[in-house]
Design goal:
The protein is mainly alpha-helical. It contains five helices and no strands. Keywords: Coiled coil. InterPro entries: CCDC170-like (IPR039139).
Length: 336
């Protein structure tokens, strides 16, 4: 399309140069006619030169107008700009809210994307801090769990000799009752002491069982808390991964937009440079044409003055010749 505009401009200048050559040729032809036919057609020649000058002035006025290619380049630059806005709007649109292909809408969408990116960054930082806190809590739970497992092992070790002791006590009680049926009164005090010892031992065992039950409940609560914290950490890590992926996609999209913007701006600059160059050429050609037109106008004015002088010089001779003819024919003489 640029080549076509340049050819049209060159063609217009060729036509104008041809018009100038025709004007010069007509003036030369009229000058030859003037010399060949004499002063009778002097006024006709002058009128013809005047019409040629008017036509030349019209062509000069047309030359002063901006070339067609300049307006075409401006339309092309505007078309590139609108196409760039359309591509930006397509990149920034989503399925929920499409972006119109206008400069204001594209600017608002880019500002919105920047604000969302800042919000995602702050949210990502908050999630990272929360993950660090939960990780510390989980480490503390594991440490407490390791510490609580040690008393459980000790309690199990203590429980085994107590069971053996309980069995021995039951056996001793059984044999003691069988052997000392007749000596109940005499052996009442030692038996009572054994019973007291056994009751203390059973109380201690009951106390140990309660402690073991409480320890098991505590461990179960710690396991449930650990599982809950692990689930929350996995959910937060998943959200963080989604945010990182979304942030990466937004950065890629912004990079594509910037590349497209740079390419379009470069094309617009090149188009403007071409328009300025063609406009300069048109101005130079117009200036070059003005000088021949002025000289042709001046030559035509000189020819007009020359024709008038010749007409004025020939007029008295014509009047004298006419008077002589009338005297010879015997007609009354008319004033010239």
């Amino acid at each position: 399309m640029n080549t076509k505009g340049q050819e049209d401009t060159a063609g217009s200048f060729m036509i104008k140069d041809k018009g100038k050559a025709i004007l010069v040729k007509n003036c030369e032809r009229d000058d030859n006619i003037f010399h060949s036919e004499g002063p009778k057609d002097g006024q006709k020649i002058w009128d013809k030169c005047q019409q040629d000058l008017i036509h030349t002035e019209k062509q000069k006025h047309n030359l002063d107008r901006p070339p067609y290619s300049s307006s075409w380049e401006a339309k092309t630059a505007q078309s590139h700009s609108q196409k760039f806005l359309g591509q930006l709007a397509t990149l920034l649109s989503d399925s929920v809210a499409p972006v119109p292909a206008t400069e204001e809408a594209v600017k608002e969408r880019i500002q919105e994307i920047g604000a969302n990116e800042q919000s995602w960054k702050s949210r990502t930082e908050g999630l990272q801090q929360e993950i660090q806190i939960l990780t510390k809590q989980l480490e503390q739970v594991h440490q407490h769990r390791e510490e609580s497992s040690q008393p459980e092992e000790k309690c199990g070790e203590q429980k085994r000799p107590l069971k053996r002791l309980e069995g021995k006590i039951a056996i001793n009680d059984f044999f003691q009752e069988r052997l000392d049926l007749g000596r109940n009164k005499e052996n009442s005090r030692p038996k009572n002491s054994i019973i007291d010892g056994n009751s203390k031992m059973f109380k201690q065992l009951e106390k140990d069982n309660k402690q073991q039950t409480l320890l098991n409940i505590k461990q179960n609560l710690q396991i449930a808390t650990t599982q809950r914290l692990e689930g929350e950490i996995q959910e937060l890590q998943k959200q963080l991964s989604d945010l990182k992926l979304s942030n990466k996609n937004m950065k890629t999209q912004l990079t594509r937009v910037n590349i497209l913007k740079d390419k379009t701006l470069q094309k617009l600059r090149q188009s403007l440079i071409k328009v300025e160059a063609m406009r300069g050429k048109a101005v130079m050609k117009t200036g070059n044409l003005k000088t021949p037109l002025d000289s042709a106008k001046q030559e035509a004015s000189w020819d007009k003055d020359k024709a008038r002088q010749m007409v004025d010089a020939v007029t008295p001779e014509l009047c004298t010749a006419k008077s002589t003819l009338e005297d010879v024919s015997g007609r009354p003489q008319e004033a010239c």
